[in-house]
Every structure is written in C-alpha cells, then in structure tokens.
Amino acid sequence: MTKQETHTLDVSNVCRQVKEAYRQKNKLSVYHGTTNSTRSLRFKTGEFVDISKLNRILAISEKERYALVEPNVPMDKLLRATLKAGLMPAVVPEFPGITLGGGIQGGAGESSSFKYGGVHNGCEEYEMVLGNGELVKASANENADLYWGTACSYGTLGIITLAKLHLLPAKRYVRLAYRTVRGAEEAVALLAASARKDFDYIDGILFSKNFGVVMTGKLTDDNQNLPIATFHKATDEWFYLHAESFSQRHPNGEECIPLVDYLFRYDRGAFWAGKYAFRRANVPFNRVTRFLLNPFFKTRTMYRLLHTTNASQQYVSQDICFPQKTTLQFIRFVDETLNIYPLWLLPIKPALHEKLAPSWLQDNLAINVGVWSESTRDADKFISLNRTMEAVAKNLGGRKTLYAHAYYTREEFWKIYDLGWYEALRKKYYATDVFPDIYEKTNVSRKYTPSLRKGLWDFIKSPFKIPIDASKPE
Ligand SMILES: Cc1cc2nc3c(=O)[nH]c(=O)nc-3n(C[C@H](O)[C@H](O)[C@H](O)COP(=O)(O)OP(=O)(O)OC[C@H]3O[C@@H](n4cnc5c(N)ncnc54)[C@H](O)[C@@H]3O)c2cc1C
C-alpha cells in the first residue's frame, strides 16, 4: 500500500468511529499517545479517537515548498524530513515532541512567531473529520470559518487528519546576538523594537529584576568565524544557563548555532523547569549531575514523569499573552507578588481571525510571558495562586495558553472568549454532541494526588506513551 492509501484507510476508520459516536451522542477526545500539556489526561476506551497511527509525512514538494503532514508527526521528525529537501516550517515549537496536530490545536509558537504567528499560520489547508464523521477540507478559501476557528480549539471543532504545511528555505545556522537588558522595561522595549526589524528569530529571558537578555537571530549558511555553540549533547550546557553566562561575559556578543540545535535549544531542561526537579529530588544542580542525568531531562521524558507522578499542581507553568502595552504591568505583578525568575518573553504577531488564539489581542504586538517555577505543595494555595494570576491577566487584557492549568469558572471563561460565535461554529460543523467543549477540555476541576513512587513505577511500565486506562477521559 502507498502512504496515501494507508492514510485513506486510517482516516476512514476515524470517520467511522466519529460517525458512530455522533449517532449515539457519545463525547470523544483525541488520543495520540503523548502530550505537552501539563493537565493530567486520562483516556478511557470508547471515549476517544486514537489518531496515533497518523504519523506519516505523505509528500514534500521542493518546487512548490509545501509538505503534506499527518497530525501525529512530531517536530523533530518533521524538521529532519523537510531539511532533506533544504526546507523548514516557518514555526517550529521549541520541544521536539510537540506534534503538528497538537501544535495547531494548542496554539504553539516560538521565536519566529513575531513574524509568522503560530504553527497554524504556516498551514494552508486542513483535511478534517467533522462531528458527523464527514471528511472536509478547510482553508482560507473553503470552510474558512472552520479553518480559522479550529486553530487553538483543542480538538473541539473537528479532528485534523492532514495538514498542507508551507515551507521556507532552510539555512545551516542561526547567527544569534545577545543584548543584555537592565530589567523588564528595557526588555519589552527592545523586543518591540527588534520585532520591527529584519530578524528571523526573537526571544528574551529575564533572569532577575535587573538583568536579562534579548536574543535576535538571523538564518545564515556561513558561520562568519563566530564561535559555534551546540545544545543537544550531554556535555553541552542547558541553553538558558549558557545564555546567562555568555551574555554576562559578552553583553553584545554573537555566536552561531546549528539550525536544529537552535530550534530545540530549550529541550534539555524544558527551558529551566528541569532545575526544580533536581531541587525536589535533593540532587545537586551542577554540570556533572546535568551530564549524568541527561536522558531524564529531555522534554519527552520530563513530560511523561510529570504526568506519571501527577505533580503538576506543585509547579506553576503558565504562558500568558499580553498586548505589548500591558506586558510590563504583568511582569511587575509577578515580580512583586510571586518573585518568579527566570521569565521567558516571546513576541508574537497578533492573531487576526483566530478567535481562540492566546494572541487574539488588540495591539500591534503580543508578548507571551512564560512563568514556570516550583510552587507550594498545598493544593488549595496553589489553586488560589493560579486564580489570582488569571484575574490579573484578565484585567490586563491577557489570554492564557490553554495547555496549562486553567481554573476559571465557566462564566469567567466565556467573558474572555466569544461563546456565541463558538457555539454557532460547533453547531454548524456537528461538533456539539461529539467533542467536549473547550471549557470542559481545558478546565482543571479537581485536586491532583501526586505520588513519586507510583509515578516512577508507572513511568517504567510506560515511558513513552500515555497508557489507556479506565478512569475519566480528558
Ligand atoms: C514549560 C512549558 C513550555 C512550553 N513552551 C512552549 C513553547 O516554547 N512553544 C510552544 O509552542 N509551546 C510551548 N508549550 C506548550 C505546547 O506547545 C502545547 O502544549 C502544544 O499544544 C503541545 O502539542 P502536543 O502535540 O503535545 O499536543 P497535545 O497536548 O496532545 O494536544 C493539544 C490539544 O489538541 C488536541 N489535538 C491534538 N491533535 C489533534 C488533531 N489532530 N485534531 C484535533 N485535535 C487535536 C488534543 O486533544 C489537545 O486538546 C509549553 C508548555 C510547557 C509546559
């Protein structure tokens, strides 16, 4: 069978399952074996559609610069394949295990997002299974409301079974310039000014109240005699530690990073989230221990461990998008109330039509603030802290990325998102009775019971995939 024939067969199975659920009014989630969400997910037989087989790249057209990609293809596999044709996606989220489908549905972005927006903005067309089991195409010209609406909808409008992804010419390196800043005000101003210039990549890290770095990158084939830094080997430093020490030594320094190392530079250590695991396990955090424990600190493994130990209510993990004009106020709130550093700053081109996108904001530039830190072990205090962040973000016109824990009440949630538009779209495309709605799907309504011992055992039993169990679905 050709890849296309296998695809057609697998998709017809998905259509059949959804059609049956539609007939019986059963709610279905999407299962694909992994997740980069921090919410605990459980999948019960009969209550999900398994799309994990949809992990093939059907075609890459070098001439017309596009790829036909099934949704369960992870970013590292996608990049490897497109690079063979000298091409790359415009937006490659920082973690290699993020899948194309999850990236589209979860609003994934990265340091080229100031120029291109989210992963979904690189997709010209989707093949989708609707709630009644019908297979349709969605693009800016065909079913345009579905095409724009499905971005960041967490699988609540239909199931993507294929995406036509636009590709760009790739280069060997990213030439990265580090500019130190003396605090949030300078960081936000420099990010905004850089976003108006001709860079390919921009992001920033605030290491403390008075020290941070803004990094701007340009694709290049020539390393121009600059030092070359890599970030994939156990002997390499975690990127954020390197960025801090490099920029302290060279406040206006530059270096070249091989393309794949650059795009996945935050994989080892999950930005800096891995540091908190060392602390929790009472293991010293130094170059030797990072080297020895390297296999456990790649994001794929870290996510499995986070889920098996059920520990995510002990770590703040939020990405919140703000209009540029209120970003500073949010950073001040985090500084004064939570005192969390480092903070990640990512400029994003505002969404124009994608009403569920975190970057659907009224400003010329959106800035995502990544707040990731260890937190209290008291679940009530943890929830209360998250509720405070949600209230502050809402008052400042911010929107959360919903991979994270959300504790909004239904009323609060639908004051942020457009319920009338969303319900009409779900009705039009037969989603209402088959797919859980976005509030149900992203709200955390219970307290988790963490367990290190059980978690390690569950991890050993299933290190790579979310097992299917008999509990409540996602
Ligand atoms: C510390 C931290 C840092 C992060 N940093 C970044 C970052 O730098 N850049 C970034 O982009 N993201 C980041 N994320 C978030 C991540 O991008 C999102 O969680 C993304 O959605 C993950 O994709 P996934 O493949 O794991 O999808 P999943 O989590 O499995 O899926 C997301 C949603 O999409 C649905 N879905 C999946 N496939 C389909 C499909 N084919 N059809 C319909 N619905 C589907 C799922 O049901 C789910 O509701 C970060 C997360 C954390 C915790």
What does it look like?
α6 (184-195) runs antiparallel to α12 and α11 (299-309) crosses α17. This protein is α+β, with helices and mostly antiparallel strands and 474 residues long. The chain has helices at residues 3-24, 75-84, 100-105, 113-116, 144-150, 184-195, 239-249, 259-263, 273-280, 287-292, 299-309, 324-338, 379-395, 410-416, 419-428, 438-442, 452-461; strands at residues 29-31, 48-50, 57-61, 66-69, 87-89, 123-129, 135-139, 159-169, 173-181, 201-208, 211-220, 254-258, 315-323, 343-348, 366-374, 399-400. The strands form 3 sheets. Strands 12-9-11-10-14-15-13-16 form an 8-stranded antiparallel β-sheet, with helices on both faces. The mean pLDDT is 95. The two termini are 34 Å apart. It is globular and about 65 Å long. Residues 29-30, 32, 34-38, 51, 71, 93-94, 98-99, 101-103, 105-106, 108-110, 154-155, 159-160, 270-271, 273, 317, 372, 403, 441 line the site of flavin-adenine dinucleotide. Its main location: membrane. One of its GO terms (biological process) is steroid metabolic process. Its EC number is 1.3.1.72.
